[in-house]
Structure formats: structure tokens, C-alpha cells
Specification:
36% helix, alpha+beta, SAUR_fam, 4 strands, Putative small auxin-up RNA, 2 helices, 78 residues
Length: 78
Amino acid sequence: MHSRNHSNLPKGHVVVYVGELQKKRFVVPISYLNHPSFVDLLKGIEEEFGFNHPMGGLTIPCKEEAFLNLTSQVRASF
């Protein structure tokens, strides 16, 4: 997982904006989106907030620490 401020996006990755108030940009492998834990997170977000993403990437309104813990678990399972 990468945290980036520029617009270069590696092949096979997706931009994710994470945070409750301030959003931080992360670049994660697309394969993460199919992991059961990530799918559960996305379903919960869709139910609560919908899928309107004005920043041009997927917006996940959770604490950055929780997102980092999730991505660590996902990365370890691959």
C-alpha cells in the first residue's frame, strides 16, 4: 500500500481516500477489493453513505488507523 500525493497510479491499483474529516490519499492493489474483510467494509460504507465519490476515488470515512490495520491484515493473507 502506498500513500501518494501525485497523480501517478500504478497498473492494477486504485485510489482510496481515507478519513473521517480530513481525507488522506492511499493507493492500494485492486485485488484488495475482493478480500472478504474489504468487501465487508465497502458494504457497510455503501449502506451508510452510498457511493458518491466527488474526489475521483473511493472514499472510506473511517479512522486512518483502522484502515491501515485492515490493509495489513489483507496484505498478510495474500
